[in-house]
Amino acid sequence: MRAVRLSAVTATATVAALTALTGCTEKGADASSDRVINVTATDSKCEVSAKEFPAGHVELAIENKGSKVTEVYLLFPDDRIVTERENIGAGTKQRVTAEVKAGDYTIACKPGMKGDGIRQDVKATGGTAAKRDPRLDKAVASYRTYVQEQADATLPLAETFAKAVKDGDLEAAQKAYAPSRIGWERTEPVAESFGDIDPKVDVREDGLEEGQDPAKDWTGWHRLEKSLWKDKKLTARDSELADQLITDLKDWQKRVGKADITPTSMANGAKELLDEVATGKVTGEEERYSHTDLVDFKANVEGAEKSYELLKPVAKENDPALVTELDKQFAAIDTLLDKYRADKTSYDFTSYDKVGEADRKELSDAVNALAEPLSKLAAAVVVK
Amino acid sequence: MSENPQTDNAPAPSRRSLIGWGGAGLALGAVAAGGAVAMTRGGDDVDTVAAEAGAAIAFHGPHQAGISTPVQDRLHFAAFDVTTEDRAEFVQMLKDWTAAARRMTGGQAVGDGAFGGLAEAPPDDTGEAVGLKPSRLTLTIGFGPSLFQKFGLADQQPDALVELPQFAGDALDKNRSDGDLCVQACADDPQVAVHAIRNLARIGFGKVVIKWSQLGFGKTSSTTPEEQTPRNLMGFKDGTRNIAGTETDRLKKFVWVDEKAGPDWMVGGSYLVARRIRMHIETWDRTPLQEQEDIFGRDKGEGAPVGKAKERDEPFLKAMKPDAHVRLAHPTANHGSTILRRGYSFTDGTDGLGRLEAGLFFLAYMHDVREGFIRIQRNLATDALNEYIQHVGSAVFAVPPGVRDKDDWWGRTLFSKEA
């Protein structure tokens, strides 16, 4: 039962407000000068012509006076992107426009196109401000950091895996396989939001689209999994696949910090991680050759728990009963998973082909028990 | 062929339009269904007429609906195991289930409905029954012997609720047997029955888990003798002498638990035996007609007992073969034991050998399992029919009395006692 229910009107209004804020780039310049903010980017500075501007249509007139290629972002307080322009060459000008509601924003210049950038706080005034909860902004910002950390930590592990594949070291590659996937599995819904990376790195053979050739178009971890456990031999093609995996994961690492993340997407992402467990891991389909499903399972639960912990302070206020239930069910599933590893700090889980039917049902029941209340988390963190 | 009763196609208000109307919505339903008595008295002894297929059966009453209620066409039966150790949480779930059951049997969506709510949250109701008629949905709860090993209920287990012994020929699959709880969902529309189980299971996540479930079609016994007796998958009329919903005296004597028998919390309740009986369809179909009729003790066309002309003629048991099914199952062969049968045919596709995975999902209600099913089933050890059937699933449940009113809930008489 839902303890807190916002009126549908409030919720719809919030969604509409967010929709209206979607950034867009346009060619035509706005005649009204107070709607144009001149952004002068250098290698060490990010100067803006106005710190306040009226809500509504706004245009950033960007000039890169530095020596490095730069990027300029207009960001929400939670670092979600309102609009952005990448690849602004030294000495060039670019324009970018957006429709913004009243509220606080940040303009960030990123000389060299990396890091958090040089930041300026700005404010859109007048009109009705979209309601924001600073705790949720903080939760989103923290989650964004977490997602980036997971990608950063994954790359070296993936490189170890790729190297073993290229060395033709079957045993070392098998050993490095599951650990290389943990960071990905913890944050999968964010990676999936890009649409193009997931099908390259995490698709299973049956997930290929019509017309795709398994011999040519099937790439990523699971293709290598098949080589390692089913074919039990590594070929030149596998070396190519290993290189491709690293290339694709670097793309992920580069883009993941800019993902569109909201409190709602965090909460629903947590639920989606449990959906992944329910449809892929519990059945043993995900890791059909390596049987390392429980490693993914654990990582999915950890990722869901991370989102939940960050959203918990707000959820607790809106729906204390839900938080009590989620605390209980997360603890229960963690305890259950611990039964399948001797050392609670390691990711050496029981091979899933050794997990019997009754135990699989018990795991499935635990997933249902957690996922059902988790599906109500988003409603408990909607800004009122 | 006797004519089938016409399905009333008069439009009843959709589930959607009933949302929020509560009792008024049900009254509206009665009018819109063509002025007939659309709402039958489900939980009463005096459950007279079979209502039209679309109507609602009253959820409240001294007995749970779904026992003496005229048998609906479809079944979804689910057995659950309790996973929570928290008694208060379990009791709350029973209350939540009752509230949902009250709405669904009235043709209303669960909670805040299937759409129109918060965009960020999944709807309370799963939605597939929106726009369908109440379809005479009944939801009947039962408590298995294993439940009494939990929550300190050991002292409350009725003497009449015994674990069934192993009967000759039983080949029980533990994954299709037993359960701490059961819910029997019967409706004239299969989607309405499945919707009910699905939504109760969803409410139950974290507290209970589904252990097994069974879909059924083609009722095999009716509790309405004025209707044509339905046939089982062997092609024979089944349940000719079943207890009718109108037979107050026989219901009282054989089905409802009375004060004298007790325990107090079960007065007005009953006991349910569920058996999944697989039929060896292919070998049965190759059996000569005479042998088929000898095995049952009735003729296949009319359903008349051996040597008699009409289905309802009193059987002369000695005219039948000693191992005829009717002869062995008849009350006079079992010290008068009589049970109310409410089974359904099932066909879960085919098995790995291409044989129909089909049979009878036997459901029977009785006031005492020992004097009812156990006695009869023991007597059926020599049944000629056994060559063609195999009992593969089994469960027994105490079915508590009815939910009296809007403040009452399933299992209150058991759980509020020593709360």
Fold and architecture overview:
The complex is a heterodimer of chains A (384) and B (419). Chain A is an alpha+beta fold and 384 residues long. Chain A folds into 2 domains: 22-129, Cupredoxins -  blue copper proteins (Immunoglobulin-like, Sandwich); 136-380, M75 peptidase, HXXE motif (A middle domain of Talin 1), CATH 1.20.1420. Chain A has 13 helices and 9 strands. In chain A, strand 1 and strand 2 (46-48) form a beta hairpin. Chain A is globular, with a radius of gyration of 23 Å. Chain B has 419 residues and is α+β, with helices and mostly antiparallel strands. Chain B has helices at 15-18, 23-32, 87-105, 190-204, 248-254, 281-285, 289-296, 325-329, 370-379, 412-415; strands spanning 74-82, 138-143, 181-187, 208-219, 270-279, 340-341, 344-350, 356-366, 389-399. Chain B is globular, with a radius of gyration of 21 Å. Chain B starts with 14 loop residues before the first helix and ends with a helix. Residues 1-51 of chain B have low confidence and may be disordered. The chains are: A alpha+beta (384), B alpha+beta (419). Chain A binds chain B through residues 1-2, 5-6, 8, 11-12, 15, 264, 267-268, 325, 329, 361, 365, 368-373, 375-376, 378-379, 382, and chain B through 83, 96, 111-112, 116-122, 124, 202, 205-206, 209.
